Amino acid sequence: MKKMALMFVGVALLVLTIVPAINLTLGTEKKGYKWWSKSVLFNLDFALPYLSHLLYPFGISTDPDQVIIGKNDWLYLGDYHNDTISVTRRGAVPEDEDVARKIRVATNSWEQWLKLKGVRDFRIVIGPDKSTIYPEFLPDWARPAADSATNSLLANVDRGIYVDTRSALIAAKSRFPEPLYYRTDTHWNSLGAWVAFQAFISELARADVELKSYSAQQMRVLKVNECYGRDLARFLRMTNLLRDKEVVIDIGNERTIETEQYDFETGQLTASGGNPVFETPQRPLLVKSKHALNQKKVLWLHDSFGEAMAPFMAATFSETLQLHFDRVDPLRFAQLVDTYKPELVVVTIVERDARKKRFENLPPQNP
Length: 367
Description:
Elements: H1 2-26, H2 38-41, H3 48-55, E1 67-69, E2 75-77, H4 84-90, H5 94-116, E3 121-127, H6 130-133, H7 149-156, E4 162-164, H8 166-173, H9 190-207, E5 219-228, H10 231-235, E6 243-251, E7 258-263, E8 269-272, E9 285-290, E10 294-302, H11 310-316, E11 317-324, H12 330-340, E12 344-350
Helix pairs in contact: 5-7, 8-9
């Protein structure tokens, strides 16, 4: 016993000597800390990629709050993000209905407010969590309950406002050999975004018979490229060790879509050419599209799930004013509507955020 204790102390002393030496050699830095602080000298970040690589084959995550390791190299968000895994496992509870009723009151109020402002249609598009569409690759202990909090939400809100893309994506899994979501990322890929976008446009067309849209036959998978691991792999420090698939799709169009991006507040042109995917804007960004199917002005508030949908929005609508949904409170929302005067308002939000408190916010006093 004494020998084991001495060995443990010896190993600990060795680590306490080696770790600072490695950090000093590597020139490790940490914002807000001096090089001689404990947070810098005893920082173990340099060792995490090796530890992750060692534990990964056993399904052990070095950051389980951020990442859960599933089957066949599929990674999922942990509970750090809105208790994603716990909420999925517990299923619907009575509190979810209370939240849904408050959201229904708020969204119906916004719909009426927007109509008084001249907006023809208002839609909220839910981007399903990856675990909703691909539960089969979750660890057995993390499998979702039969009923979900999202079911409770959609059962209590106005389905004329909400667009549920889950059934379209689940049906598309058997239709396409390519995956609809990245294995090492939280998001859908371009193919998944296209399927969801079609579901959204189909719902919108019921209220607007003149709306033009692309058919399923006009879409084709152009190629599938191998890429490095994405955001969930980054949490594990395994971006360069894991691989994923980038699905490139092409929408048949007689004329090439060309876009121009403007800072809405200054009017300055920030980018032009092609129809690219770009990060969710943190400032109001106006995207103008040449040769779009519909001459419509759209106010589109979205999170990162909207990024892969952006080329389809540009191909379908001549103007989209875009802004990250987190940057919008009721006052700013109202100001954007008053200034831009859109015909259509769309919110695209990931499933795990669809029940957040901000959806209970009421609009300003009716004009």
